[in-house]
Every structure is written in C-alpha cells, then in structure tokens.
Amino acid sequence: MLDIAFDQVIVRKNTSCLKWDLVGERFGDKELLPMWVADMDFPSPPEVTEALEARIKHPVFGYTSPSKELYNSITLWMEKRHNWKIDTSWITFSAGVVSALAASIQALTEPGDGVLVQSPVYAPFYNMVIKNDRTLVNNELILENGRYVIDFEDFEEKLKSGVKLFLFCSPHNPGGRVWTKDELKTIGELCRRYNVVIISDEIHSDLALSPNRHTPLASISPEIADITITAMAPSKTFNIAGLQASVVISENKELLQKFNDVHDRRGFDGLNIFALTAMEAAYTSGSYWLDSILAYIKDNAEYAMSYISRELPGLSCMMPQASFLLWINCSSLGMTDKELNERLTKKGKLALDPGTKFGPGGEGFVRMNIGCPREILEDGLHRLKTALT
C-alpha cells in the first residue's frame, strides 16, 4: 500500500536544484520533465530536518569534529542494516563518494597505473581515472536474461595484466544489481590473488529492494576486508546529497592512512557542521523512514515495469534490485543514441540520462529516476510513450 506522505509533489524549481533548475542548460529545454540525476523528489526524514533546525538555533558555527555519538550511529547502522560489525577506528570521512574515489586513486596508484572498472557504470568512475592520469581498463558486464553478470574470465585476465586498483560498484548503477555473496567472494579472492586493491562504492547499499539484501564486500572475509576500502553515504539513502557527506571504511590501517594522507595534502579538514548533524540524525533515527520509502520505490518500480511492458512492448527494462533508477533498453527500436535523445527531449519533453553516459554497453539504453511521487512517474511514463510511439 502506498504511503500517502510520499505522494505530495514538492516544487523544487528556483532552489538552485541541479535536477530541476539546470535541465535547460543540460538538455536544451527548460520545460522538460527532469527524471535524470540521481536524487529523489521526496522530503528527507523529519528527524534530519529537526536536528538541522535545532543546530541552527545555536548561533555559533565554529570548527566542529565528529562526535562519539556519530561514530556509534554509523557502527550500529552497519550492524543492523547490513550485518557488518565494524570498529570506529576503521572510519574516516569524505565530502562525497566521488571525492573518495579520487582520493583513493591518488593514494594507492601512480600516474599511468591501470585502474579497472566494469562498464556500463556511473560516469565518475571513468572521469576520476582519466583525470588523474591513470590508465582505464574495462571489464564489460554481460547482459544475461535481463540482468548484468560479470565476465569472470575477462575479469581475471584484466587483473593479470597488472592493474593496481579495481573500482567496484555495489549495488550496481545503472543496472540496479545486488551482487550475490558468491559473486562477491569470487571478486575478492581474484583481486587478492593478483594484489589488486578494491575501492567498493556502496552508496546505494541501503536502497536494496525487498527481498534483496546487500552484502558489504568487506564483510565476506577478513582476507577480502584487508584489500578493500568501502565508500558509503547517507546522501542517496536519505536524500541529503546537497549536504556532501560520506563515510569511508577500511579494516586495513595502512590503506586508511594512505587515504587520509591524501586528504591531509589537499587540506581537507573534515565535514561541515550540518553534514555531521544530518548524518548522525539519519543513521540514528532514519530506519522507519527508509523502510517506508523503499516500499514506495518498489511500488513505483513495479508500476513502471508494468506500464512499459503493456504500453511500450518494444522496450525492456531491468527490475532494480536496489535504488530508484530504472535502466531501460531501447535498442530494439533501431535508433541511434542521438535520435533516441532527440525523440525524448523534443517529442516527449522528457529528460533522461542517456546510456552512453555510462560507457561501453550503455548504447541504446536510458536511465530513468523513479524516486518521485507517483504523479510525476505517471507523467514521465506517458511522455516516454509519446516520445517513442
């Protein structure tokens, strides 16, 4: 049953909102319905808002450090939500997962070193490798029975080639895969065999849709934990990306120290007051809100899948196992990616992320953000139909 609270449409225009206010700049038409960038159109948990309001009432905003309560809220969250027992000494912070990827690349590789990714994948994976003058190595995922699987034969060959670092997306963006424990074990064991450190981007970990359960890669075994840095964040989970706060976790003290050394060289001095406040409130009191929003997102996903199957049988899409992103395969229409984008924007008045943004294997796909009230989702699906029929 839908939670009526999430049906409310909140106007986000004129708030310097990337998703709504920059759609004209990004897509050439400010009147498009934006269902592209991955933040939700739902209000954040009231406990987060209340904690921020309470902090604002104190008139001094001086230098602030993470509290003991914040560290405890993170460890308790990981244990309760992911069955992962971590120690507070394993935790550090970053302004975001993307900046954590960049810091990890700088800390653990040298210019020219090979860094492995698995396409199609979130675009900053490529950008952070290339912009830091490392060599991009790709292990393209295989589309099999409507979902992505890993080509482990090619994966091992790429590891053998001498790559130093593997950027892993778990759960997968844009395909929404929640990797199985067997897949995670194989990944970890192969990387350990070839002395490759893993940076596991698990920003969508809290958004696994029932009955799927996310397993942190580092929780598989102590041996895999020893070669892994995990990046998580409350940003996608609680829709607070604008506060710029992420958690970086590693049991390996040497890896964590190298990561922190890069932050020191950059002059990064920790998260701001409001990021710390929101993170603690979210991890302390956000479970009930998250459970409700996950039920709503799952209903949205099932509604969208049913609509596309019924009204646009030429398309196919993956039922996401995690997150609020729908990966839609339009390749059977026989359009080029340019033609597809023009149909969506000019005829459908709809802004979706083009599949090519996610690298090799993304051709012919688009990504739709369904983290929105049902009214907006229905409008977006009708526009998709208008564009492609």
From TrEMBL:
Its cofactor is pyridoxal 5'-phosphate. Keywords: Lyase, Pyridoxal phosphate. SUPFAM superfamilies: PLP-dependent transferases. One of its GO terms (molecular function) is cysteine-S-conjugate beta-lyase activity. It is an enzyme of class 4 (lyase). The keyword Lyase applies. Its EC number is 4.4.1.13. Signal peptide: none annotated. The keyword Lyase applies. Pfam families: Aminotran_1_2. Residues 39-384 form the Aminotransferase class I/classII large domain. NCBIfam families: C_S_lyase_PatB. Belongs to the class-II pyridoxal-phosphate-dependent aminotransferase family. MalY/PatB cystathionine beta-lyase subfamily. This is cysteine-S-conjugate beta-lyase. It comes from Peribacillus deserti.
